[in-house]
Amino acid sequence: MTNNQEWNEFLDNMFNNAIENYKGTEEYVEQKRFREEVDTFIKTELSTEHSEYLEENLFDLSVSVEKQAKAVYRQGVNDCIMILKNLGILADK
Fold first, then answer.
1. pTM given for the model
2. What integer pLDDT is reported at residue 39 of this predicted model?
3. Between vectors from CA 2 to CA 68 and to CA 65, what angle results, nearest 5°?
């Protein structure tokens, strides 16, 4: 495994840990409750055609949101490293 692959795996693990910690918050519980209400509405109030269309698009949206969150997390790590280097706390290679 290359250094870059190890770094990416490390960041993925850190991101996943952050998500798991977030799942313990009131905000997450409220979002989960709301999503369950939306799912119930989709299944009970919409036609099969509309339900499938909406579920497919909501899934695609959730994948996009996760990719954005990972990108922001990675940028935050990179920004933190840059700041620590500029403060002289971390040495440049």
1. 0.78
2. 94
3. 10
